[in-house]
């Protein structure tokens, strides 16, 4: 049983998986923030174009 615990403590695969998960989480947060910023900007742009088209024929 002691040998199993020693091998488990020496195993680096779990630490590597956790590191990759943290990197993926950081990238995901960055992408979500960027998409939200661009989405808000694009929404404002579309509303502006829609308003101009609605008043263009008058």
From TrEMBL:
Transmembrane segments: 20-38
Entry keywords, A to Z: Membrane, Transmembrane, Transmembrane helix
Domain of life of the source: Bacteria
InterPro entries membership: Flp_Fap
Protein's name in the database: Flp family type IVb pilin
Source lineage: Bacteria, Pseudomonadati, Pseudomonadota, Alphaproteobacteria, Hyphomicrobiales
